[in-house]
Design brief:
mainly alpha, single chain, globular, 123 residues, 72% helix
Length: 123
């Protein structure tokens, strides 16, 4: 992949992750309320502080992309957040699917960009 394109993607994706990760922690941007079917799910996530952990992981991944330190590792860790976001939006709240899909697609693109770092895992 072209290094300039990768640089722009790293910065944009890093900003995306920092903004939404900080929003999980500090609630400066109120998301739309979840549908009624998802209320129990969200209550469980909030009570167990899972969304705080998701915010920390997203912010750490965003910082790693910005600093270009440990980015390949953080993209693997972030994949669990990305897949869960897409599955949630597919099953409970389809209105947020474009954002969840964008998160997953950008994560896959970044994993592909760092594919050389993962070769030793498959040998």
């Amino acid at each position: 992949m072209n290094s300039k394109v990768l640089l722009v993607l790293r910065i944009v994706f890093g900003l995306f992750l920092l903004f939404f990760g900080a929003n999980h922690l500090f609630q400066f941007f109120a998301p739309p309320p979840p549908p009624e079917a998802a209320m129990g799910y969200w209550e469980a996530l909030e009570i167990t502080k899972v969304m705080t952990l998701v915010g920390i992981v997203e912010m750490a991944a965003g910082l790693s992309l910005w600093l270009n330190k440990y980015a390949p590792l953080m993209m693997v860790i972030l994949m669990s957040v990305s897949v869960n976001a897409v599955l949630y939006h597919l099953t409970l709240d389809s209105a947020g699917l474009p954002m969840g899909g964008a998160l997953l697609i950008l994560n896959i693109v970044m994993l592909f960009a760092y594919k050389d770092n993962y070769q030793s895992l498959f040998t």
